[in-house]
Amino acid sequence: MKRQHHVVAVAAATLATALALTACSAPSGGSDGGTDVVSGGTFSVALNDDPGSLSPLTGVSLVQRALVAFGYDSLAYTTPEGEVIPWLADSWEVTGTSIAYTLKDGITCADGTDFTAETAAANISYQADAANGTFWFGSSITADMTAAAEGNVLTITSATNNPFLLEGTGSIEMVCQAGLDDPETLTDATNGTALYALSDSTPGSEYTYTKRDGYTWGPDGVTSDTEGLPDEILGRVITDEATAANLLLSGELNAASVVGADRARLDSAGLETESLLNPIGEMLFNERADRPTADVRVRQALTLALDRDAVGELVTDGNAVESVSLVNQIPLTCVAGGPEWTLPDTDVEAAGELLDEAGYELGSDGLRSKDGEPLTIRFIYDAGTPSHGAAAEEVQQEWNELGITTDLVAEDPAGWSTDLYQSYDWDTGFIQLAPSSPVVLSLFFLGETSENGGYNFMAVSNPEYNALATEAFTAESADEACGIWKQAEAELIERVDIFPLAETETPMYLSGVTLDRPGAIAPTTIRMLG
C-alpha cells in the first residue's frame, strides 16, 4: 500500500537544511493492514543535518522544528487529513476574538511538575511578547493577544477578529514553567509534556528520546501503554542519501527521506513510501537596494527567461508537480479552490526588453552591464539536495544566453546562515518556504526584515500585499479571510517576490513502522511492526 498526502515540513528560515521526513500513515491508534504491532524497541530516523538548538521557542530550521515535535505537545492536534482534534485541551469554545480551552486532567511535565492552565497562559504571554522573538510570533500568535487562566480553563483573547484562532493557538508547542523561566535550558534539553523526552544527545551524530511513564493525554486516547509504541526515538544525523538508503535496506533505519538516484533501489526493494509536497524549485529574491534583484523588472526578466519545463524536470528529478498555492503544509489553510495567479510563459525576448528598460544594456561581448557594472546574479542552492546542482546549471545556461553572468553557489548549512542572515550576499536561488497557512506565509513578507529581528530575510516591501494581508487578519469568517489571502498571494506572484517554479512529491521510505506526519512526525502515532 502506498498512501500519499500533500504535506511538507514546517515553515522555517534555514530553509534548505530540511529534515525531509514523511511516513506511511496509519490511524493514530492502529496498524497497517493487519500487520502485527510490537511494543518496545527503538524507532530510528535519519536527519539530513544537525539541528543545533532544540528550543521550541526560537528554533527555525526544518530539522529543529521536526525534533521539537518529539519533545513537546500542543493544545490541539491536526491530523494528516486536516481535522483538528483534542490533545492537551479536552475541548474548546471559539468566537471571533477569543478561544477558551478546557485542559485535560493529570497532565505532567518532563521535570515532574504539573502542567496547568496557568502554565499554558504563560506560554501564550511569552509568545505574544515581541521582545522574546519566538518562532510563532507574528503569525499564530500576535502582540494583541492576551491569555488568562481560571481553574483548568485557558482563555486567549485577540484585540482584533481572528478567524484562525484554533488553527493558530492550538498548534503552539507548550513549554513547562521551568523552561519559560530559563529559556536557555531548552537549547540542549527538553521540558515539555510530550510522550518522549530527550535523554541523550551527541551533536552532529545522534539524539535519543525516551518514552515517559504515566502519559495519558495523547490524541485519540494514546497513553504510555498504547500497544506498538517504541521505547526510544533515535534521530541519527546522516547527510549522505546513499548511506541512508543502505541503512534502510539493512534494517538499521526505520525512516529516511531519499530523493535522488537511490530511490530506484528502494522502490525495487518494495519499501513503503508516503510523499510530501515539497516546493523544491521555489525561488526567492533578495530585494535589498544594493542588489540587482531589487528592481522588479530584473526579477521579471529572470523568470521570463527560464524554460520552466526544462528546469522543473531537472530540479524535481523528473517528478515535477504544478504549484497550486504558496501554502503547502497541513492543514493547507486557504488552498482549496486553487490559486488566483498563473505563472507566465517563457518569453526570452520580453525578458531582454525588461533588462534594457532597467538599464542593463547588452555589450559587444554579449554581456549585460549598467554604469560599467556587469549584471551578475549570485544564485544559491542546497549542496545537499542532489537535483539542485543540475537544475542550477541549466538556469545558468539559460541566463547566460541573455547576457547575464550567473555565479552558482552550493550552500552548506553554515553558508545558508551566513548569506541569508548575515552578509545578505545573494540574489536568488532555490530557496523554499513551507507554510501551513497564509498567516504563516505572511511572517516572511509582511513582517520586519531579519536585520530588525524579523523573518523577512528577503527585505520584501510589497504595499499591495501588505494592505490585503492586513485586511485578511480582520475578516469576519474563514471563507472571507481565505478569499483575501488568495488575492494577497497573487500580488506576491505578480511582483515576483516569489516564483514557485516547480514542486515535487518527496518520498520518505520506511521499514518496520507506521506513523502519521501532519507536518512533523507525530510520536504518538509511531507503531513498530513485527
Task: Write a compact overview of the structure shown.
By secondary structure, the chain is of the alpha+beta class. The protein is 26% helix and 21% strand. The protein has 3 domains: 152 residues, 3-Layer(aba) Sandwich (D-Maltodextrin-Binding Protein, domain 2), CATH 3.40.190; 117 residues, Periplasmic binding protein-like II (D-Maltodextrin-Binding Protein, domain 2, 3-Layer(aba) Sandwich), CATH 3.40.190.10; 220 residues, Dipeptide-binding Protein, Domain 3 (Dipeptide-binding Protein, domain 3), CATH 3.10.105.10.
Rg, Cα atoms, Å = 23 Å
Give me the secondary-structure category. Answer: alpha+beta
Count of separate DSSP helical elements: 14
CATH superfamily descriptor of the largest domain: Dipeptide-binding Protein, Domain 3
CATH architecture verdict of the largest domain: Roll
Main sheet specs: 5 strands, mixed
Spatial shape: globular
Are there runs of 5+ residues with pLDDT below 50, and where?
1-34
| First-residue to last-residue Cα separation | 17 Å
CATH topology-level name of the largest domain: Dipeptide-binding Protein, domain 3
Strand order of the largest sheet: 19-18-20-13-21
Could you give the count of β-strands?
24
CATH class of the largest domain: Alpha Beta
State the helicity in percent bands.
25-40%
Number of structural domains: 3
Which whole number gives the mean pLDDT?
A: 89
Beta-strand portion reads 15-25%
Domain Solute-binding protein family: 83-438
InterPro entries: Peptide/Ni-bd (IPR030678), SBP_5 (IPR039424), SBP_5_dom (IPR000914)
Keywords: Signal, Transport
GO molecular function, one term: peptide transmembrane transporter activity
